[in-house]
Structure formats: structure tokens, C-alpha cells
Amino acid sequence: MLEIRGECRQGSPGTDNTGILGDPQLTAVFAFTDLLAIEVMNDLREMGRRIPEDVSVIGYDNSVFSAMLSPALTTIEEDSERMAEAVLAMIRDHLAGKCIRQDILVKPELIERASVCDIRSGDR
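and the corresponding C-alpha cells:
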């Protein structure tokens, strides 16, 4: 079963941010950025939760710090260079009077590291 719940977190270090992270049934967190994932990992550790044994954590943007964490953060990397090239090409076309509607797919890449585990494997 997949349950998706959102939570807006507005805190700073030392602030009580437990909320959804305190749910004993929580098995995974996907954070909007790697920086938020790092904050989640710290909060989970403070609550005595182990990563990835108790809760898997995935970030987004593959920041330079994500590989340096313990455990190293699994993250999603987008090809921002390819996206920038596509946007610039569309702007050039528009300025040249070519208003062509384009759908461009830029696939993100999952960077698998140590912050997740497969709960189906029974390793938890």
C-alpha cells in the first residue's frame, strides 16, 4: 500500500519537527531537496530511528553533500544542462518568430546510495 501525505515544515535546528516523522508506520521519506532530506535524516536519528533500516530517505537534486553523508543519500538528479539547452532553443525559436509548441522530456536519474533499503527483502 502506498500512502502519500504532505507536511509543510517550517523549523530550524532544535525545533520540534516530529510530525509525520514520528509515525511508527513510516517506512520512507521523499524530500523535495537534498537539504531537506538531510534535515529529515537528522530528525529521524534524534528520534532513535535508523536510516535505512527503519526509514528510507531519498532527496532530490544530487547536491555535492549527498554522497558525503553517513549513510550516503540516495537522490534524484535532473539533467539541468539539458533542460537549460532546451529552454534556450525555445527562446531562440520564439525570438525568430517560430512559435512551435514542443514537449521535451528530460529524464531524471536515480543515484542509488545507502539511505534506502528494499522492505520486500525482509532485511528490516
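(Above: one complete record from the training split.) Strands lie at 28-30, 56-60, 74-77, 109-111.
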